[in-house]
């Protein structure tokens, strides 16, 4: 990510530092203004203080607005880069790997990760942690005079909140992992219903009724999983709100006691109340960001696993004996004891060029073009095993039109070319 867009990281880091600075200013300025009103009673100084605060506030708003616009554009470009890596991987992938159900499932998960911009969120949380950490260090220096038991109570509330966050994230991941297959299945049914190539079968054999029944079964499974997730989510969210209310009540009672009996000034009351709230919220945010980062890394593992799938055929081997095809003018193909088996096929078979449907004519062409490698035996070009040639140069020697070709929404010339 750094190599693709350095400015995105630099601007994010600057915004994180400014966010922390803005949070600290919002702690001290209210206290300063309240002290002017309640103790100094200087109206002219109050005007200057409010004007200064307003100017700083407006300056931060403008900076944050400009940076948000810049980062939004860069985020889209960065996310598009991640998506393009998926499709580039698919184009370069060996067919036997591409046709694997496991690969298909990984690909769908990788696309879903990009659509939800989990990779971007993963990056943003890193900068949010920096901002919150700086805020905590600043407020902690201010709150050293606060009694230690107060921090114990706040930390206990944060611990309970953390447990709730972990439970919520665990439920979300379990739901996402379960419904990925269900979404793939339902999307396939929709594709069949909308595909012009299946329109005749749908009408002649009433296939649509059968497909709708299968879709309804998938839908029932999906809503059952969603109901379980939402019930847990609502319970967890209400518990978090209860803890937030409990924290505010505790702070009001403690600082109110200090204000009444310990002669705490109103300005300091405001400063300590805001500081304790900021300290608690920042600490909760850091813990939540760390937990969410760990959870996101689990999601991103599917994307990384897909991108790192290894080809067996389409690889540039560092082989000094590799044969060059640039100067070859005549091609003689020879097959020696070649047989091939598709993954999942019940038995081995030898295929010939002339034969009935399903005899293996297309498979033979696939092998000659080296779209697949034979399970045993060898294929020779000009008395050299075809695996000794660079796969790109070798494939460039062939011009093949398959029986199941697909035309594209381009001009005739582009389709032929």
Q: Round the mean pLDDT to the nearest integer and report it.
A: 80
Strand numbers in spatial order across the main sheet: 1-2-3
Whole-number radius of gyration? Answer: 32 Å
Largest beta-sheet characterization: 3 strands, antiparallel
Strand content: under 5%
Low-confidence stretches: none
Walk me through the topology:
Blueprint: H1 6-40, H2 43-92, H3 95-98, H4 101-115, H5 118-142, H6 148-194, H7 199-204, H8 207-261, H9 266-307, E1 333-339, H10 361-368, E2 376-381, E3 384-385, H11 391-395, H12 412-416
Antiparallel strand pairs: 1-2, 2-3
Helix pairs in contact: 1-2, 1-5, 1-9, 2-4, 4-9, 5-9, 6-8, 6-9, 8-9
Q: What can you see in these coordinates?
A:
The structure is a single chain. By secondary structure, the protein is mainly alpha-helical. The chain has 12 helices and 3 strands; from the N terminus they run αααααααααβαββαα. A 3-stranded antiparallel beta sheet has the order 1-2-3, with no helix packed on it. A hairpin with a 2-residue loop joins strand 2 (376-381) and strand 3 (384-385). Helix 1 (6-40) packs antiparallel against helix 9, helix 6 packs antiparallel against helix 8 (207-261) and helix 8 runs antiparallel to helix 9.
């Amino acid at each position: 990510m750094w190599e693709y867009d350095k400015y995105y990281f630099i601007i994010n880091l600057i915004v994180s530092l400014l966010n922390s600075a803005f949070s600290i200013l919002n702690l001290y300025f209210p206290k300063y203004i309240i002290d002017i009103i309640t103790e100094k009673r200087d109206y002219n100084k109050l005007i200057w203080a409010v004007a200064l605060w307003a100017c700083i506030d407006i300056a931060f708003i403008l900076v944050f607005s400009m940076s948000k616009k810049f980062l939004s554009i860069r985020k889209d470009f960065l996310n598009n880069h991640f998506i393009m890596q998926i499709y580039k991987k698919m184009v370069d992938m060996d067919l036997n790997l591409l046709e694997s159900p496991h690969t298909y499932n990984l690909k769908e998960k990788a696309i879903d990760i990009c659509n939800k911009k989990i990779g971007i969120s993963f990056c943003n949380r890193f900068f949010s942690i920096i901002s919150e950490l700086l805020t905590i260090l600043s407020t902690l220096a201010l709150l050293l005079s606060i009694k230690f038991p107060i921090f114990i109570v706040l930390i206990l509330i944060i611990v309970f909140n953390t447990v709730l966050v972990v439970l919520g994230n665990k439920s979300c991941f379990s739901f996402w992992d379960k419904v990925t297959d269900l979404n793939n299945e339902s999307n396939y049914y929709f594709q069949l219903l909308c595909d012009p190539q299946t329109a005749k079968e749908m009408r002649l054999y009433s296939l649509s009724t059968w497909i709708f029944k299968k879709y309804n079964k998938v839908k029932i499974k999906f809503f059952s999983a969603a109901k379980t997730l939402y019930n847990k989510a609502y319970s967890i969210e209400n518990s978090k709100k209860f803890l937030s209310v409990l924290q505010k009540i505790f702070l009001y009672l403690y600082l109110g006691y200090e204000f009444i009996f310990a002669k705490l000034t109103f300005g300091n009351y405001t400063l300590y109340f805001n500081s304790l709230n900021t300290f608690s919220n920042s600490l909760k945010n850091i813990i939540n960001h760390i937990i969410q980062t760990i959870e996101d890394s689990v999601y991103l593992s599917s994307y990384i696993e897909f991108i790192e799938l290894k080809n067996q055929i389409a690889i540039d081997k560092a082989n000094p004996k590799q044969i060059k095809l640039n100067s070859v003018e005549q091609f003689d193909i020879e097959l020696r004891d070649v047989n091939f088996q598709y993954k999942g096929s019940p038995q081995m078979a030898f295929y010939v060029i002339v034969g009935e449907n399903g005899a293996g004519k297309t498979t033979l062409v696939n092998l000659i073009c080296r779209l697949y490698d034979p399970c045993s035996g060898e294929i020779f070009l000009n008395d050299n095993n075809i695996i000794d040639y660079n796969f790109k140069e070798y494939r460039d020697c062939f011009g093949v039109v398959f029986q199941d070709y697909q035309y594209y929404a381009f001009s005739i010339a582009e389709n032929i070319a």
